[in-house]
User: Fold this.
Amino acid sequence: MAVLAVTGLLYAVAADPARQTSCHALGPCYTECIDGGDCGTVPEAVPGEGAAAMVASDNKGTRMKVSSVAWAAERPEGVYLQHIEVDTAKTFQKFEGIGGAFTDAAMVNLRNTSDAARAAVLDAYYAAGGAGYTMGRVPVASCDFSTHSYSYIEDGDYALDTFNLTEEDTGPNGKIDLIHGAQKRVAARSGAPLQLFASAWTAPPFLKENGAWVGGALKADAKSRDTWAAYLARFVTEYGKRGVDLWGMTLQNEPTPLPKIVAQTWESMPYTPAQQGEFLARHLGPAMRAAHPSLKLIVHDDNKAALKGTVEAILKIPNASQYIDGVGVHWYVFPTKLNAAISETQALLDAALPGHDCFILGTEACSGFATILSPPKRGVDLGNWERGQQYGADVLGDLNAGAVGWTDWNLVLDMNGGPNHVGNNCDAPIVIDTATPGRYYKQPMYYFLAHYAAYITRGSRRVGVDSQGLVPMEVTGWKRPDGRVVLVVLNRDYALGRSFTVHDPKRGYLVVHVEPASVATLVY
Assistant:
């Protein structure tokens, strides 16, 4: 145990467990892992008597380093340009969790590594000593992060007589096996269930107007629409038979119709907002309530730019509102921005559906999806710290705007950001070197998400925080069911560290120092 003096405070610092970390000030910063050995864990943050525990990470190699910050009864002397005032009496939404997607790509990559590495990656996300994930997303049949397009029924099967899950779902180390592994780890860690929601990218082509996997609306006739609703309910049933009880389902992945120049080139099926409402009210809602009454139905599942307008239109469709349990949001239009759309839409839902307790959940995000919006390139950019900072900022902004959680895209990808059958590669918090079985890399995105997910537990309530100063600290505050308070603080400035004060009237004052380009979690 080393002792470090910073701005007049003594910090007891645990040895950094990630001994294979490679970092450069403005360049790559990652942890190389071989079969999970000596790859570091996410530590507990247990405050000592009269102190808060602080966990910190930065772009110079510090990874989840635990220290202790003493409380003072009086306001500290000296000049501090930032101050955080905490008000635990002021409470907001309840936290559901953070997670990632069990895509075919994630499954293929985990199949193509060693047994030890596969187990270690699941540990890194879901087990004690991991990032604290408690949620997950499951695609219904294929998406772009599959090796090919496929459906669960044969063409023309309106009765679903041929419905059958595929090898991607049920094969050895398939998606269901991986989910079972995650379920066991979450249960052992917290005693709570893994909350999973499903999303479909497209109906089988014979149910669509264009008869193709890409684009083309769902046919308007009742037979086609009822078949598609029954297909989605059947998916929930079949997964349930295999020990995977789904918590929710989104109506459709990214349904907003797009201009041809930016439209998807992979499995997709557009709905106008009114069409979403009509399908929900007349087909999906009744079918799902009959087959799976406790399943959460989530509309929109698309970018924030269209969020409020979509929900307004759906609410105008007769009988649709009774089936809206939640709203899903993606980050792809100007990542880390447009968070106000969440708070505006939550206010709209609360006013239109009093007592219905509709939630807004981040349902997809990834880096490396486009060169301009996620530089410097599409796909994996190993150790890109700025991509981690973008994740940290988007989670913080979404939560402070009222979201109940945040879901990453692929849990793992290969070193190119795939496989993806149309070349729509992106980045992931953990990437696997499939050419060297057993080797994988934890990226900055992984650590930023762990700073939230490992310490803000399900059922926590967001509390009031007033971040003051000319350049206020970015912060979110939560009170856990066990009574602990958690603050996550970002300093995205690459040049300057920050020393700031925290005041909680029930505890006193803290003086906290954070390094440049860093994230810190305080627990007390």
Confidence is low (pLDDT under 50) at residues 1-19. DSSP finds ten helices and 24 strands in the chain. Residues 262 and 366 are 17 Å apart (CA to CA).
